[in-house]
Task: structure prediction
Amino acid sequence: MAANTRDPGKRKRANLGLAGRLLIMAAGSFAFGYALVPLYDVFCEITGIGSRDRLLQASAVASPGPDLARMVVVEFVSSTPGSGDWEFHPSLASMEVHPGQLYEATFHARNLSGREIVGQAVPSISPGRAARYFHKTECFCFTPQHFASGEVKEMPVRFVVDRDLPAGVDRLTLSYSFFDTGRMAQRSSDDNG
Result:
């Protein structure tokens, strides 16, 4: 230790070496964090699980017809995270469906904010392994929904449960979180400002 304090050149080189290693480690951490989003997207594409793009797109369904020998329960769930500006709920809590047959369910939404707002629904399917077998042909989640002050809407979702749904799955949950996009944008700018 005494030799280190006596030789300022060695100490300076050691400090520069440590600073360089720390800088490389920080850059590597940043690069890894930056790469997580594309890696997650690739994982979702490969597995078909959790793909937000796939969940927000209409499906073209080509089916040989319904499987009348099988019934699956589809439950409908809704939430409005962080906001008292909405009344949002499914018209039915659940329905029994035959795989391969087209069905329609509706969700009720009302703007309670007293101002014009735009809402966006974000869907999810549970269990996650069954998401690839649930196909929406029409959905209010595909586009933002514009609401006047106090406006009420009945919003449809048309769907088919694929005939290839694994035999052990007899219950699916279609869940929507409904967000005020203006409020989300405001929070984002507040967080970044």
